[in-house]
Amino acid sequence: MSRPVSRVLTLLELLQAGGVRTVAELADRLGVGERTVRRYVDHLVDLDVPVESVRGRYGGYRLAPGHRMPPLMLTDDEALAVLLGLVAGRRTGITAAAGTAGETAAAKVRRVLPERLRRRLDAVLDSLTFTTDPAGAAAPPAAVLLPIADAVRHHRPVSVRYTGGSGRGGERTLYPYGLVAHGGRWYVTGRDLSVAADRTFRLDRIAGARVLPGTFEPPPGPAPAERVLTALATAPYRHEVTVRVRGTAEQVRGLLPASVATVAEETGRGEAPPGSGGGAEPWCRVEIRAERLDWLPGLLASLDRPFVVERPDELRGLVADLAGRLMDAARGTPPPRD
């Protein structure tokens, strides 16, 4: 690479760091005169890089928003951060791109990297493994995510084409409070004007979104993430479970995922449930909705706190069966060693 071209690219890298850079500062960093700096800036402008001049005592040059992305200059650490972010985003479902856009973006970044750096980054990606399976849910397309995000930010109503879990679809008008990524899925929570109630919607079930005129004032109350977790925990399922657990609400909430259970501390301290062993420590009422009960005995046992199942009766039997199997395992004779 010829020296002037190298300096022009270095100038671009300096400008991409952000802010206004004075001509004197750029000249010092590049090791050239101020007149040469201005000539290098003209070269960038000829390449459609949006460089603008800032006048005044603290004036100089800066990058302005352009109609297309200028060439990127990435350090080793920045290139690694971009590629790892794309890989992690695909696995968690958080990458807001449909289809193979994440893969093509990563390929474009790799293609413009120097061979030395590309080989080193490939070594990282080839040797990297994850302890969790990739998220099965598809990330929302930009045509859905971006208008909803804009409506959230500016408190604007938004019209969406939504298909529910039952397969019924239709137009909904929302006052969106916030976007939440949870468990590999994206959600929007807000006021559904068609039913005059707060609702939570999965973005992968939204076929289109359109920002509407007007504004609204978000109500006080829980943050969007708390609203989504509460909606997931209280969604209708086959079984409605109620369990009383000894401990404060803060202690019990720390042991149970917020998307699974709702916890409320009971006001009457010291009023222990029958057969719970008494004690002055407070009790909490835990409500869980689940399609199956077979995983709940293990969850309750893992709390390592006294608990009493109030409903359903079937869960009491499953807890007793687990207790019996654990007792049998504790009394059993270990197999002889070879």
Helices and strands, with pairings:
Elements: H1 3-16, H2 23-30, H3 34-46, E1 51-54, E2 60-63, H4 76-92, H5 101-111, H6 115-127, H7 142-154, E3 158-163, E4 169-182, E5 185-192, E6 197-202, E7 206-211, H8 224-233, E8 239-246, H9 249-253, E9 261-265, E10 283-290, H10 296-302, E11 307-311, H11 313-331
Antiparallel strand pairs: 1-2, 3-4, 3-7, 4-5, 5-6, 8-10, 8-11, 9-10
Number of strands: 11
Helix content: 25-40%
Please give the largest β-sheet. Answer: 5 strands, antiparallel
Quickly give the structural class: alpha+beta
* Helical segment count: 11
Structure description:
The protein has 338 residues and is α+β, with helices and mostly antiparallel strands. The protein has helices at residues 3-16, 23-30, 34-46, 76-92, 101-111, 115-127, 142-154, 224-233, 249-253, 296-302, 313-331, and strands spanning 51-54, 60-63, 158-163, 169-182, 185-192, 197-202, 206-211, 239-246, 261-265, 283-290, 307-311. The strands form three sheets. It has a five-stranded antiparallel beta sheet with strand order 6-5-4-3-7. β5 (185-192) and β6 (197-202) form a beta hairpin. α1 (3-16) crosses α3, α2 packs across α3 (34-46) and α4 packs antiparallel against α5. The longest helix is centred in the C-terminal third of the chain and has 19 residues, at 313-331. It is elongated, with a radius of gyration of 29 Å. The chain starts with a helix and ends in a 7-residue tail after the last helix.
